[in-house]
Structure formats: C-alpha cells, structure tokens
Amino acid sequence: MMILKSDSDIRLMRKAGAIAAGALQTAGESISAGMTTKELDRIIESYIRSKGAKPSFKGYGGFPASACISINHVVIHGIPDERTVIRDGDIVSVDVGAYIGGFHGDTANTFMVGTVSDEARQLVEVTRASLMEAYQLLRGGVRLGDIGNCIESYVQQYGYSPVKDFVGHGIGRALHEDPNVPNFGRAGHGMRLPKGLTVAIEPMINQGTDKVIISNEDGWTVTTADGKLSAHYEHTFYIDENCGHILTQV
Ligand code: MG
After folding, report:
1. What is the pLDDT of residue 219?
2. Among the listed residues 138, 143, 239, the one whose alpha carbon sits nearest the alpha carbon of residue 190
3. What is the Å distance from ligand 1's center to 159 Cα?
4. Contact at 8 Å (CB) between 103 and 80?
5. 69: CA distance to ligand 1 center in Å?
6. pLDDT at 198
7. Ligand 1 mean position to 201 CA, how many Å?
8. Which of 72, 153, 227, 229 is the most core-located residue (most Cβ within 10 A)?
9. Rounded to the nearest whole angstrom, what is the distance from the C-alpha of residue 176 to the centroid of ligand 1?
C-alpha cells in the first residue's frame, strides 16, 4: 500500500533528509586513506545524534552499524569494522539514514579517495548522473518503468549494469515502504506514482555483470559476482504535481 504524505509530513521529512545529507557531507569531508570504516561510521553516528536524530539503519533487521560502507567491489550493505582500512584509490559507497520526528531520510554517495583510476571515476560519475536523469522525470503520474528504464538505458551507454536484486523504495514513517523502485524497466510500463509519494531512488551500478553475491559469513555484505567495481547514489524525493523535490539535502 502506497502512503501519501501531507505538507506537514513533508516538512518533517525535509528535516530528517537534511540530517541524513549533513551526515553524508560530513563523511565526505572526513574520509581519508588510512581510516577504518568503523571510524567513519562513528563520525556519521555522532553527527546524526548531535542533531537529535537516530541512525535509521542501526538495528534495522539486526544491522550492527549506523552507516553501510561499501568499498570497490562491495555493492551495498558493507558493515563498518575495525579491520577494514580505506585506501588511496578506493571508491567508497556510504549509505546513511536518519530518523527524527517520526520520519526517515535515506541517502547515499560514492566517495573517491585520493587518486582513483579513470575507470573508477567514470563509473562513479555515471552512477550519480543516472540518478539525476531519473530525478528530471519525476512528477505526479510518472511510471515506475520510465524511472527504471531511464537509469538502465543511461548506464548501458557505458557498458554498465544496474543491479537487479536490490532496488529503491517508498519511504516515510517506515524506512522501506511501497512501492519497490527498480533501476531497470520498460519505458511506458509499470505503476504510476502519484503526487504526494516519497521515494528513495538508488541506482546501484556495476562496472561488469549485474550479478551479485550476498556474504554467507555476515548475511549482509553484497559484492559483485565478477569482482569488478560498483557505485551507489541515493536521494529521498517527494513527488509533486509537476516535478520532484530532493528531501535529502543540507
Ligand atoms: Mg534506501
């Protein structure tokens, strides 16, 4: 069931979104080679709590940290720990959620640490651009297939593949609400998204195959099946009559 938001709900979601975005911005300013993913997670959690919010992901389905931190071939859901050191040349996807006033904000960014390869940079830039292309399509009545196809066809120009096993989602009082928002699809097909809906659109784009593997060891970490790179961008959007609005901005 899709849950439409009132104007007062949107005011609260902007607040949650701004805190999530601020945490992500702080992560981007703090990230550096030599740091462990746990250190970065602590910085993110401190920021969120300093604003009176809670990290949406901590304890969600048993997830043990405040942010998902996923390096290079890790697609999503990397668990921050004391062993994993961020290195020069890494691309590091950081996914952050903040909960305050009864609502969630959810946003992700892939940071380039130090000097990254041209191919890694292109993957990151194309992934970000695919999200912004989808943003341009948002308006009341847009079809799910148009959003998915927009992202898929954009990244396929570069030989990249959107992940199929994980998708974006509605968001509000719950971190994950209906509908699922795939990063692939057929233009002109699928459900129409009404004005008043809030969705997290999150292209997870692989350099090679779209196939992914979920770790047997921790049950969370998702990696590319071929070991090639993956990037991830996400914003929480409000769908208005004639356009979309990004709620996850500082
Ligand atoms: Mg999300």
Report:
1. 97
2. 143
3. 24
4. no
5. 13
6. 98
7. 7
8. 229
9. 7
21-79 per-position pLDDT tens digit: 999 999 999 999 999 999 999 999 999 999 999 999 999 999 999 999 999 999 999 99
Cα of 167 to ligand 1 centre, how many Å? 8
Distance separating alpha carbons of residues 161 and 158, to the nearest angstrom = 9
Residue listed under structure tokens 């699922």: 180
Instruction: Report, in angstroms and rounded to the nearest whole number, the Rg of the chain calculated over CA atoms.
Output: 17
Flag whether 250 is in a domain: no
Task: For residue 200, report the distance from its CA to the centre of ligand 1, in Å.
Answer: 6
| Structure tokens given for 84 | 């994993």
User: What is the distance in A from the centroid of ligand 1 to the CA of 39?
Assistant: 22
Query: For residue 174, is it within any domain?
Result: yes
How far, in Å, is the centroid of ligand 1 from the Cα of 93? 13
Domain total of the chain:
1
Ligand 1 centroid vs 165 CA: distance in angstroms?
Answer: 13
Residue 166 domain-assigned (yes or no)? yes
**105 exposure class (CB count in 10 Å sphere: 0-12, 13-18, 19+):** buried
* 204: containing domain: 7-245
| Cα(95) to centroid(ligand 1), Å | 8
For the domain that residue 88 is a member of, what is the CATH number? 3.90.230.10
* Beta strands in 80-132, from DSSP E residues, in sequence order: 91-100, 103-112
pLDDT by residue, tens only, the chain of 250 residues: 999 999 999 999 999 999 999 999 999 999 999 999 999 999 999 999 999 999 999 999 999 999 999 999 999 999 999 999 999 999 999 999 999 999 999 999 999 999 999 999 999 999 999 999 999 999 999 999 999 999 999 999 999 999 999 999 999 999 999 999 999 999 999 999 999 999 999 999 999 999 999 999 999 999 999 999 999 999 999 999 999 999 999 9
